[in-house]
## 1
Amino acid sequence: MMKNNETHTHVHEPIFQVVKRDDLIWYKSWAVRLIAIVIALIICAFVIVLLTGYDPIKVYSSMISGTFGTSRKVWNTLQRLAMLLCISLAVTPAFKMKFWNIGAEGQSLIGGLASAALMIYLGNKLPNILLIPIMAAASIFAGMIWGLIPAIFKAKFNTNETLFTLMMNYVATQLVSFCIVFWENPKNSNNVGIINQSTMSGWFPSIFGQKYLLNIIIVALLTIAMYVYLKYSKHGYEISVVGESQNTARYIGINVKKVILRTMALSGALCGVAGLLLVSGTNHTINTSTVGGMGFTAIMVSWLAKFNPFIMVLASFLIVFLERGAGEIATAFQLNESVSDILTGIILFFIIGSEFFVRYKIHFRANIKEGVK
């Protein structure tokens, strides 16, 4: 018999509870990521068997062969890694400031367009020792302007930087398309195929017989410089504070608008450098696919590395390895490219998903009760 005054309340205990972790020691966090990669590879093995019937070991071997099989493949891989890393470095200061710069594709493309224009119009008039520095300055300036335009509107009118920078990509693409049509006009003596193929005017010089080595050295130096800039400089400190809280930044006397403009100028300038490296050091031409989507891939690289330039090297390598390996699978086994894309997607899904377990831990019901006791 229940008494009239007696009431029963049913407390529904959760099966599990997600709790934010304290910062994991670096080797534990990397252990979580490595476990995620191993699990992803095991699942991919089952997918390979189910979809194709091939031996997963042979498929994985072909991925390695596609990346490191020959000296030429190694240098192509390092070149691709360097370019992706360069653009990742470019977007990192903005992202750390929580300015969502989705316009790296367009900023790099505009930088490349500036280099191509100078190669076409000044290529046979100036020696490389003068032309290449002028191209570098023009590419940096062009990328900087393309980054500053959305930054000015954000600082003055608080516009949505995500949409603004995204739209700037399309403007840059159309501008490149217009220039290509103009340069290919028969009335113009210059052709926008391989620019200055006979004279190599405006082309980066080979070092020790390797045409990509100068690109790689430049990006390596930029990686060190960006690490020092973000971690030890006053500007890097201001970027971190603005990213944490703009109100706090204003309270301690930081000029938030100035930081936004300065940081986006830097981000755009580095994208301009990437455009220079792609046109002068890699492709020696310009088209709408010169950047090849790296401006968007760089976003994932920057986030995976938690804005650490040195870890970005590893993240960039992983992405490039998966891209080149997936292409090799499609070629070697005559598979539909969708199969290789599925494998890449599974691996990236587990890598990105592992960040949840790095940042959070799960307490199940028994552990919750123990915690209450």
## 2
Amino acid sequence: MKPMMETARFHDLICGGKLNRRQAHKIMASFGIGTVATQTMAGAAQAQEADEEHPVFFTWAGYDEPEFMVHYTGKYGREPNYAIFGDEDEAFAKMRAGFEPHVTYPCGPSLKLWYDAGLLAPIETDRLSNWPDVLQIFKDVPNSVVDGERVYVPEDWGQTALIIRTDLAPEYLDPENQTWNALWDQKYAGRMAMSNYSYEAFAIAALLLGISPWHMNENERLQCEDLLRTQVPLNRALESSFTERVQAIASGEVIVAAAGNGTYSELAAHADGTDFEFTFVTPKEGAITWHCGLCIHPAAIRDGFYEQAHEIIDSFISPEAGVYEIGNWYYGHSNKKAYDSFSEEFLLSIGLSKNIEEFLAGTQFQQAMNEPEVLALRWEELKAGF
């Protein structure tokens, strides 16, 4: 998940054209502002009229950028029809209420829920010309194949791992010390930054305890609570904004932080021309990797859009779409050929690598967690000292 930011920074970035539409819509949703028409965003393409000869693609804001749909438009002469959602809960509720798009764009934790609700149709990978170039590690993500049928094609991804100021904590240059346990290092009390997302905080604790984060029972959750109770007092702050967290790491106020690719790339910009050193490391217990991708709704079969639905997916997993997304959004992409267009130096500067399979070895792909509402409540109580 991309972190949210405060209104002043949002205003500066949107006015400067530095946010893509997905980021802007998601941030506005966090402020309680409804989704706006895509043509009102700075630099957006002119909205096209709906066309009944083309399927409806129900997706995040930003994924209506024409660079993602080059193959589809090359074949059909225009883009599909777009419907935009702010988050997956909104999308799920709308579809359960009767909205029937033809292609959707969920993320890993939603797959089982959407499948069980009858919202996912089989995908025939032999119709996808770019399927052979999708990295195997993403083909195998949980819940992408159900009862022998593929229902999900991964497209992009990012990680929550550790950012460490190695000039201030040089012992963490040693791979043996690169563990989630760094967030419990009493030596740096008051200079930590745990993730403020309940599901990530509990997942980190579970990984450190050798527990599978995604299927915890009550006893395992209580073990994680006990561990997190000892970590919370070590943090400089948990409620800080994305900008404040980046600045705190850059200034040395925070030495060890749970953070994602966006924080890493922002820090790289801060570090330019300075002497401070930091690293983005995968803890030996495993990083937490989110991924999102494309699914076909059963309505595509009924409405005669099954072939076009596959063309939308094929466009998104093309190397051209991957080059655009890596180069402009700093997300990872599922097509291995997309990385050929970038130097290893650039990829490392945004928390990626050319050797993705090795880079993601031992990662934990994010899934739905048991009783997420309980985790959220307990996390708030733990932060309050209970």
